[in-house]
């Protein structure tokens, strides 16, 4: 007879599903959490489409989606609200998966794409394009910046800056033949330098141009629609297709580089591939919505704690990230009396969690 301590509820821990000669290992707890996140994302999206300056009833939403109703209703539902809500889900999913990969590869709970220079590179490139095109548009440099914005748009310029910053960190790490810890430290140094240049640039610009750049640098989904969904959708789809292979490699790397090597894994290839995927996910997300802070850091922790796993689960992080950023954008746009950038909401939530994690790690090191 089983003792009470040995009893386990069916949704706790992994289970094996057998179909003839085939067997599959499933985690009912993760499936339940994933289902809750999907339902939550659906509810948040519906609320985001319904509420705003003009209330849209479910019947009006249904008519607008079917191509009926007035042109104004279709414009509000499809272009202004639904597109923005979907962009929020996609950006949250991209940032969260990037954060889960970075923390797992670095084996450091404080690691995040925000600190390895990608976000700072995108912010500097966008701020540079905005300031030059707005302040000195009559000069040769300003004219080139304005032309660059017209051709690629602000997301394209930000993506270019994020890619160059990430490439700089990778090249410096490979040149020094550094470890993953050195990769993180080099990223911190590059991020601090780029952030300093961005701050100087905003101080140099006139007030109106600096205000426009500051809004984007805070992280905002204002004005986003279906035109901004294709890039994060494509990158996220490819990353999800690689999720099985990535999770398999991460489970081996979690045991340590030496153990993973003994088990037959190409450690450098696995680490490089996972960091590359994280870089692309972060760069695309930042290029679409600006540098939204703390999502890539907080969500993997929440997914790991909820699922009770040793490393952040990739797919659960994706679902959690979509829900949480969608909810944060709904609060920033419709719940608060005046609209604010969503990056402010995520920072208010993420900063206390960062402080808690830092204090917890310091106490653990002190005790050891």
Automatic annotation (TrEMBL):
GO molecular function, one term: transmembrane transporter activity
Transmembrane segments: 30-52, 82-103, 115-136, 148-175, 181-205, 234-255, 275-302, 314-336, 342-359
Cell compartments where the protein resides: Cell membrane
Primary location recorded for the protein, binned into one broad class: membrane
Membrane topology (UniProt): Multi-pass membrane protein
Entry similarity comment: Belongs to the binding-protein-dependent transport system permease family. FecCD subfamily.
PANTHER family: FERRIC ENTEROBACTIN TRANSPORT SYSTEM PERMEASE PROTEIN (PTHR30472), FERRIC ENTEROBACTIN TRANSPORT SYSTEM PERMEASE PROTEIN FEPG (PTHR30472:SF24)
Name the record gives this protein: Iron-siderophore ABC transporter, inner membrane subunit
């Amino acid at each position: 007879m089983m003792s009470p301590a040995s009893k386990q509820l069916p949704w706790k821990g992994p289970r094996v599903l057998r179909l003839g000669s085939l067997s599959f290992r499933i985690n009912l707890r993760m499936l339940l959490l994933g289902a809750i996140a999907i339902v939550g994302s659906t509810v948040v999206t519906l609320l985001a489409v319904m509420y705003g300056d003009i209330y849209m009833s479910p019947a009006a939403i249904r008519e607008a989606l079917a191509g009926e109703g007035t042109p104004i209703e279709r414009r509000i539902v499809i272009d202004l609200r639904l597109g923005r809500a979907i962009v929020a889900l996609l950006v949250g999913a991209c940032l969260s998966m990037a954060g889960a990969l970075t923390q797992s590869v670095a084996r450091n709970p404080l690691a995040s794409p925000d600190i390895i220079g990608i976000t700072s590179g995108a912010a500097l490139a966008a701020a540079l394009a905005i300031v030059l095109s707005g302040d000195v548009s009559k000069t040769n440099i300003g004219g080139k910046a304005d032309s660059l914005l017209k051709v690629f748009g602000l997301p394209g310029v930000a993506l270019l800056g994020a890619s160059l910053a990430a490439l700089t960190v990778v090249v410096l790490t490979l040149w020094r033949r550094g470890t993953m810890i050195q990769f993180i430290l080099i990223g911190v140094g590059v991020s601090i330098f780029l952030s300093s240049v961005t701050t100087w640039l905003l101080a140099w610009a006139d007030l109106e141009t600096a205000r426009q750049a500051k809004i984007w640098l805070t992280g905002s989904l204002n004005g986003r629609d279906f035109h901004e969904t294709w890039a994060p959708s494509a990158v996220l789809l490819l990353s999800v297709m690689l999720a099985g292979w990535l999770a398999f490699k991460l489970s081996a790397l979690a045991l340590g580089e030496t153990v993973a090597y003994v088990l037959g894994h190409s450690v450098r290839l696995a680490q490089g591939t996972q960091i590359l995927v994280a870089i692309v996910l972060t760069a695309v997300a930042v290029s679409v919505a600006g540098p939204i802070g703390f999502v890539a850091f907080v969500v993997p922790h929440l997914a790991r704690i909820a699922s009770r796993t040793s490393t952040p689960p990739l797919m659960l992080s994706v679902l959690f990230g979509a829900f949480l950023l969608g909810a944060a954008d709904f609060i920033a746009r419709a719940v608060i009396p005046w609209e604010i950038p969503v990056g402010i909401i995520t920072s208010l939530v993420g900063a206390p969690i960062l402080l808690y994690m830092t204090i917890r790690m310091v106490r653990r090191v002190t005790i050891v």
